[in-house]
Design brief:
Largest sheet: 5 strands, antiparallel
Shape: globular
Strand order of the largest sheet: 1-2-3-5-4
CATH architecture of one domain: Alpha-Beta Complex
Number of helices: 9
Distance between the termini: 17 Å
CATH superfamily of one domain: Aminoglycoside phosphotransferase (APH), C-terminal lobe
């Protein structure tokens, strides 16, 4: 547990009248996620961004989804705003305890939730327009990245981001533009076990925005290309969502974009984790070699 991150968590808890005693780190990628056992609450701790209003917009969208549309989304802790402290932003969310005997959540639940999400009206909340590869671009501009990748690799990745962004601007988007999750992979699914029967819900709304709906579909196909999912994984998603992304002319560009997205997490964690450093090296080497088919090691989502 990073002392700096935990100090930010403790300070934010003090502001909000919560007790961090016994806080358990259950996940750490772009955010550090803690369970506060005395409250049944999850705290998400991330580095401050230039966009200071993003956390509040995320809260507002999650509340709009759950309260107004009964959509299966994780919900923020009612009446508690995100706190910026010591260079971090801390948000507090409802805790959805996962139990061992529940079935694995799959592409079928993901397709069903995304179909419902994309059918909703655009919220009146002022949301950011989708910016492709925003997180990776920001991570590459942090000076500490030179300790895990070379200057040549950083320059190559920045150039590749520019290339893919240009290609994306040239696409026609048949599914149209609307509210998107922004990182809709199956690892962001949870069971809401507070109700009977439990229902699937979608979490991690950090990249919610207004953008082309195909962005939310590509993680399912990318999981089959890079992470060993079989044809059934994709076919079940298509049956629920009602669209085969691979038949669209922009499919390969989105796969290339998703490859770059998957550099971000290992890049941020490589200085403190040998496992992430290995992932980072494999992914950069494959990208630079133009290898679009190799299998990548992946995260095993925690039972949150």
């Amino acid at each position: 547990m990073s002392l700096e991150v935990y100090a930010a968590l403790s300070a934010a808890c003090q502001v909000c009248g919560l007790d961090p005693a016994g806080a358990e780190l259950i996940h750490h990628s772009s955010n550090a996620v803690y369970v506060l056992p005395r409250h049944g609450v999850v705290a998400r701790v991330g580095a401050n961004e230039a966009d200071v209003d993003r956390p509040r917009r995320i809260y507002a969208v999650a509340e709009w989804l759950t309260a107004q549309h009964q959509f299966g989304a994780t919900a923020p802790l009612s009446g508690v705003e995100p706190v910026r402290v010591n260079g971090y932003t801390v948000g507090f969310w409802q805790y959805y305890r996962q139990v061992a005997d529940t079935p694995e959540l799959t592409s079928r639940e993901l397709g069903r939730l995304l179909r419902s999400l994309h059918d909703l009206p655009t919220p009146t909340i002022e949301l950011q327009q989708w910016t492709p590869l925003e997180s990776l671009h920001g991570a590459l501009l942090v000076d500490s990245t030179v300790s895990v990748i070379s200057e040549d690799e950083r320059a190559w990745l920045l150039s590749r981001i520019d290339q893919v962004r240009t290609q994306l601007t040239e696409l026609d988007w048949p599914l149209g533009v609307g509210l998107i999750h922004g990182d809709a992979w199956a690892g962001n699914l949870l069971w809401d076990n507070r109700i009977n029967p439990p229902r699937p819900i979608l979490g991690d709304w950090d990249w919610v925005s207004i953008g082309p709906r195909e962005v939310d579909l590509i993680p399912t196909w990318h999981a089959a290309v890079r992470y060993g999912r079989d044809e059934t994984w994709v076919r079940n998603f298509i049956e629920e969502y009602g669209y085969d992304l691979s038949q669209w002319s922009g499919y390969q560009v989105l796969l290339d974009m998703r490859d770059l997205v998957q550099v971000t997490g290992p890049l941020r964690r490589a200085t403190t984790s040998v496992e992430h450093a290995h992932r980072l090296r494999q992914r950069i080497d494959d990208l630079r070699a133009g290898n679009r088919q190799s299998s990548w090691s992946h995260y095993i989502p925690g039972r949150l």
